[in-house]
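Hi V.,

Quick status before I head out on leave. The structure for the redesign project is tokenized and pasted below; the design run finished overnight.
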């Protein structure tokens, strides 16, 4: 499975810098080696996917 389709959870390490989309559809640029944050809309744990180009 490629990282482009993999889902990441709040608190996991970010594998590469890029724009990620949470379950609420919010787009956030996150830097490599940071951790995935909570949902910017709901303030709760969420899953993130790398934005497709």
């Amino acid at each position: 499975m490629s990282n482009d389709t993999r889902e990441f959870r709040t608190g996991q390490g970010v594998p590469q810098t890029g724009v990620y989309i949470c379950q609420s559809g919010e787009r956030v640029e996150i830097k490599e080696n940071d951790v995935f944050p909570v949902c910017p809309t709901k303030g709760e744990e969420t899953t993130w996917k790398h934005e497709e180009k």
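Above is the designed sequence. The mean pLDDT is 92.

G. will cover questions while I'm gone.

Best,
W.
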